[in-house]
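Ticket #4471: complex job returned nothing on first submit. Input attached below:
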Amino acid sequence: MLTGEREMDKDIIIGIIGAGRIGKLHAENLVKGNMGVRVKTIADIYMDEDIRSWAKDLGIPVVACNVEEIFDDAEINTVFICSSTNTHTEFIMRCAQTGKDIFCEKPIGSDLSEISSALAAVNKSGVNLQVGFVRRFDHNHKAVRDCVKSGRVGRPEIVKITSRDPEPPPVDYVKVSGGIFFDMMIHDFDMARYLAGSEVVSVFAAGSVMVSEEIGKAGDIDTAIVTLKFENGTIGVIDNSRRAAYGYDQRTEVHGALGCVKTENDTANLAMVSTASGVASEKPLWFFLERYNEAFLKEVRDFIDAIQGRREVSVTGEDAFKAVIIAEAATKSYQENRPVMISEIVC
Amino acid sequence: MLTGEREMDKDIIIGIIGAGRIGKLHAENLVKGNMGVRVKTIADIYMDEDIRSWAKDLGIPVVACNVEEIFDDAEINTVFICSSTNTHTEFIMRCAQTGKDIFCEKPIGSDLSEISSALAAVNKSGVNLQVGFVRRFDHNHKAVRDCVKSGRVGRPEIVKITSRDPEPPPVDYVKVSGGIFFDMMIHDFDMARYLAGSEVVSVFAAGSVMVSEEIGKAGDIDTAIVTLKFENGTIGVIDNSRRAAYGYDQRTEVHGALGCVKTENDTANLAMVSTASGVASEKPLWFFLERYNEAFLKEVRDFIDAIQGRREVSVTGEDAFKAVIIAEAATKSYQENRPVMISEIVC
Amino acid sequence: MLTGEREMDKDIIIGIIGAGRIGKLHAENLVKGNMGVRVKTIADIYMDEDIRSWAKDLGIPVVACNVEEIFDDAEINTVFICSSTNTHTEFIMRCAQTGKDIFCEKPIGSDLSEISSALAAVNKSGVNLQVGFVRRFDHNHKAVRDCVKSGRVGRPEIVKITSRDPEPPPVDYVKVSGGIFFDMMIHDFDMARYLAGSEVVSVFAAGSVMVSEEIGKAGDIDTAIVTLKFENGTIGVIDNSRRAAYGYDQRTEVHGALGCVKTENDTANLAMVSTASGVASEKPLWFFLERYNEAFLKEVRDFIDAIQGRREVSVTGEDAFKAVIIAEAATKSYQENRPVMISEIVC
Amino acid sequence: MLTGEREMDKDIIIGIIGAGRIGKLHAENLVKGNMGVRVKTIADIYMDEDIRSWAKDLGIPVVACNVEEIFDDAEINTVFICSSTNTHTEFIMRCAQTGKDIFCEKPIGSDLSEISSALAAVNKSGVNLQVGFVRRFDHNHKAVRDCVKSGRVGRPEIVKITSRDPEPPPVDYVKVSGGIFFDMMIHDFDMARYLAGSEVVSVFAAGSVMVSEEIGKAGDIDTAIVTLKFENGTIGVIDNSRRAAYGYDQRTEVHGALGCVKTENDTANLAMVSTASGVASEKPLWFFLERYNEAFLKEVRDFIDAIQGRREVSVTGEDAFKAVIIAEAATKSYQENRPVMISEIVC
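Support reply: We reran it on our side without changes. The output follows.
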């Protein structure tokens, strides 16, 4: 189905692939978020009683072990891809073939040529594709970006992103994650482009194993600082850690010709307690489910609005592709201990 | 129906009286808040097409001009009273007579003997009654209260509440509002009791017309400071203004033997912009719908939980009564320019 | 010596009366503050070796037990009165008689007619008199005042002052202090006038003994909230406590027609530590010597500038008189549990 | 004079070389700071009437065009080297030869072998040498360091330093400055070592000309981000800009195994103004004279204490040498666009 032919305000009938944490989260937001859509099917190759029971309670009528039940269902016109990264490009292709709009979790993939092929298929078919860079929908980061766009701080000169998880994932997860740059910093690569308003031209990655020897044994690092150079001369820096004892640390900053805008972490409340031992306030919200709770809802609402109104989606396949390229360059930079040009990755 | 006989986890079928701003807000939270309840009827003596259309969209099947349609409906077991203050006690009596649980907006009334009678009827019938002191459910004020209860700041010595509306209501509203102490500071009287953990014994009210001459002509004031003395020796102070150019100003503070806990206003985001002209951050959220958005949801959820689980409701008719008594004392104090004992009001 | 006859930039030769904490502080600021003045004599009826040794180290040539050595010394043209409150008016009279400029610590006295007489003598003689309301020279409170004066927050409507000492003074001190309103809140009465830019017309004082039973037995209170009404309709509130476990709590706030300006407490540094147990920052500076350290220096420098340049001093005897009147009214209000008009005190 | 032979609490007689901004600042702190020292001579090859007049007012008896007047003066036992960087090592050698203790401004030099020779001479002669890394004496940065040392945030994993000047220096200054890494970031290299408690092993520098084309034409950059790797695995990042429209931006942060400590900028006051247009607070203090005002005094006091008490000075020649090596590595890294090992610089 081509863009020009789609109807405005069509009924959205959704199939969700993957019933893990993020698949469930999107399902609940779609069902309870009063968006006027219908979640018809959820598919997962690891189907069990818990998922069936959860789906039933939520009112999702079809539970499937085979994703083909989604692609074969002509009524389903929209698919949420929330399965493991290695399946993303294949499922995107299948959606494109069957004319279904796509919301795909990040990262869109790890193999650049597969991603290229998938995006080509999407373009050809004319379906919509949005990628789950949820942080763009966060009230704080968006306020930073809006401030930059408004010109209030002038042309960006320095972009700074701090992004630290509260605790490392299980090492088994780390082993298949693609490494810190693909699994964790991928969000920050997207955020850096979003804030700088310019494309990355080169990357230098420094990393260390400070948090978990197991992560080191698995061939990954847990602490990293990446320097980015942008086309327009802006320079950026991202620091990641797999552990922040005080919770999820998510801060952004843009320094420009006329000033600087930055944002602190959200907390559960603003109470401040002053006693003989000091002044104490709340820690940052613990992890992404708490911190980006609202953003996940806004992200899905934004996607539904886009495909209903036939306007362009906010976060495109191109955005997803570029973040992967930067992750590839960062990985190479870390491995070879030298700055890597983006043009070395894509030529 | 007496307490002892009610079933756990009964089906909650709700009738709402009053389709003004607050009635609609509760209706939407009940319908969209995934609470497992059914809103069957909404009644308003000023029924119009807008309300009918809104109710239809929300899926409320019955729209009535006559509240008796609610009281006469045996299926409805729970009533939200969101009509004008002067109708509250009568509707509470009718609910008690017909065995329906009650959520009543604040203030519960303005005539002390009518309130007494209504509460007596509630007690006799055994229905539940919760009053809409929504601020108790705010994350910030609750954190202050929890801190006090934990003993971390010691025995409360000073309680401070700042509560300022962004802009004055229409003067026609002011004329029937019962005055600033009944209409606006009533929330703070409840908050003061909630934070101090003690009962008020006397009140001194100072007031001024600073914001609107029209409010003054209507016989009311728009700026007020009230000092409270509590049974346990704690002293408290509330300041109210009908206008805060920067938005809704809602701060609380408790100073105790071991320290002090206080909370600032919520803002839409935490971005801070530093430029040559200074460091700028967001204003407080504009008004109660924004600031207490979450709290309104929590409040209703708390009420539904209470009546489903047959535990005591969180904010009782007694709480509502006491706030009205303090408002009465404050009004008298302002009029007679002298401190007024609570015992002068209730004897 | 009359104002008209004094020379510009005369040599300032200073005598200090009282070698207690505050007398020593002023002496050190005068000597080490590079003000181009000479401290010739310090007098104290309780002279001891420690004071002599301290004075010698500081380079003060004359140490006296008898204050008349100061009044009799024609070379001394400026006197700092830092002795106990009950001696202030007498020493002011003596300075006026001997033509010496005066810096007098707060409060200027406790007996209204004595103060009147002293001020009359000052006016007649034409000497300068500045009173030690040091908080006017604090960077934070001054910024609040400057903001109000600039019109940025519009006409003041509510003035709020929080002033809490870290710990109560010895009860022997309390007994001769004149009570919390004369000894402690006197500073806040001056601050309230300074911030409101209007004169107080009535006062209501509520108080409690929460901190120290001994203070209660001594006939004083340790916790107080005072409501002030100003000529221009502004209302104000001051809260005092003799104990703040977290240090000296000194905050001011002015709410006006166009907005609100307020200030927080200073801390020793801005480090914030986030750990699993929360986010911790520094307590307020411990007490007035730390918090108003700079202000004490600025205050003295301001006085020296004034008397050298023959401009009017910043904080006048009239200011001191008015603060005492308010303290008198507050004391009466607390004792009689009713609002007291300033006109009842001075007629 | 060798260390072992020096007397405790000797009289400190000081000669200052260089009467520019920083030389004058130290002179004033030494004279007015009540340190019990005597500034005898100030020498500058560009002597003029302004300096003579300033020195006279300050009470410095000898003003010289020739620095030899300082080295030849046997009474002078302590020298402050505040002349241009290219003279530092030579003057250090002369001090060592003449047995005078040395306070030398940063950087200690730019030629590594000259610095080595100078330090060798210092070691041989036994004179004290302290280098002017003033930021170590700042209350905020010191609080960060103290927190790290206390173990409260655990082993350091990430060190972050933001250091931005309010406005670029004249391009003539830039031309002889040695470049941003020697002139500006040298402070941050020292701070990074101070905070990390470990030695730098490699450096990667990214830079850009964003602020001033003239600086670019002069062969320098004005915006830079440098990544540091430390011996213990810690990674660090410094961002510098020659322009921050809002003032001097000086922030530090250490993230460790148990938490994170960071500090914000100092401001002139803590007033916050809330109006319809937002919440406004003060900008950071404008530049180093304001921000490090107290630190300059503490630094000199610390040096005087050290040389009087014969304890080791706080910031050694070795510290200065290491900062220069890092600056050398950063310069090389920027020029060759590759990470540079410290061992490439010193072998």
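The mean pLDDT of chain B is 95. Closing as resolved unless it happens again.
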